[in-house]
Design brief:
Elements lengths: L1 H26 L3 H22 L3 H19 L2 H7 L2 H25 L3 H16 L19 H9 L1 H17 L2 H16 L8 H5 L5 H30 L4 H24 L7 H12 L1 H23 L2
Helix pairs in contact: 2-13, 3-5, 3-6, 5-6, 8-9, 8-11, 9-11, 9-12, 11-12, 12-13, 12-14, 13-14
């Protein structure tokens, strides 16, 4: 039984690496070189963040949690549940989560963020053992009645985190901490990113009689509306209590919206398949390096147009 379980896990990891190699071959780059460059950029960007930002540990921890939530949403849990036993599924999810968390944990250890490292490890383990049905969406009212399903489902799924972010903003105002205040709308933008990870059935895409470019703009515009509805009250409050921080907030919001744009383009660049690990690695690099973000965004846009053309153009 143990040997069978081990072989299943090894097979799953080999399958993911094969997907990574295929993606690298499309880019014309050896997989080992791509992996080395990705890790090098990740480490450089991480140390740069700690050098330039006062609240770098908190921001870095938030980035790691976002990466974990990305994996939770990306994984086709229903499909995996039908293929693997409960024990196999838990181990597979644990391996995926640790694969994402370990690089962040190493940096946190180097920067003496032991408490944050332990918190990240516990979060990764907890998410691996969280039952799949716990991610189902309760039926509660939303402010997105006229928007597509992504905003409605995402709002209901992460309502607790949305309420916590508003609570933290209130605490930031109470203790006069502008950095924490600015971090909250940015956090909500990153949370909105997870709204758009679900792959739509092809029939839902085919019914649009638009060009691929117009279709992508429609999806982006909907995401921008959803995001602005969630963060607009925060912007008003920050403008009232931290007017001197509005420029920094504006820069942070533009950056966050660029991340949102990148995610949506990545989703359609891999359609009808899920966003894969190589794309997730590229997005992680882009998340930490804005100049690279623009280049990768353009690359995903070109690929998304190519993927959508056979579906939308008859």
């Amino acid at each position: 039984m143990e040997n069978k379980l081990r072989s299943v896990n090894i097979y799953y990891l080999k399958l993911q690496f094969k997907r990574f190699e295929r993606f690298c071959s499309e880019l014309g780059m050896p997989s080992l070189l791509a992996l080395f460059i990705s890790l090098l950029i990740f480490a450089a960007a991480s140390f740069l963040l700690f050098e330039r930002m006062e609240s770098a540990t908190i921001i870095y921890f938030a980035c790691s949690i976002f990466a974990l939530m990305f994996v939770v949403n990306r994984s086709p849990l229903d499909l995996l549940k039908s293929i693997f036993t409960k024990r196999q599924l838990i181990i597979i999810r644990l391996l995926e989560h640790l694969l994402i968390a370990v690089p962040f944990m190493i940096i946190l250890i180097i920067k003496s963020g032991w408490m944050w490292m332990v918190a990240l490890l516990m979060t990764a383990i907890t998410l691996a053992f969280t039952p799949i049905h716990s991610f189902n969406t309760p039926r509660i009212p939303t402010p997105f009645k006229k928007l597509p399903f992504e905003a409605i489902v995402g709002f209901r799924r992460w309502l607790v985190l949305i309420l916590i972010s508003y609570f933290l903003l209130a605490k930031a105002i109470q203790v006069d901490n502008s950095n924490l205040g600015i971090a909250m709308p940015v956090f909500l933008i990153l949370l909105c990113v997870t709204f758009y990870l679900r792959i739509e059935p092809m029939i839902y895409v085919w019914i649009y009689r638009f060009s691929p470019r117009k279709f992508l703009w429609l999806k982006l515009k909907s995401a921008y509306k959803c995001t602005m509805i969630l963060i607009f009250p925060m912007i008003i409050l920050i403008g009232i209590f931290f007017p001197e921080s509005m420029l920094g907030l504006l820069i942070a919001l533009i950056y966050g919206l660029m991340i949102l744009t990148l995610l949506i383009l990545a989703k359609w660049a891999s359609y009808p398949e899920e966003i894969n690990i190589p794309q997730a690695v590229l997005m992680g690099i882009a998340f930490l390096l804005p100049p690279v973000l623009v280049f990768i965004m353009f690359m995903f846009y070109k690929k998304a147009v190519g993927k959508l053309t056979p579906i939308l153009v008859c």
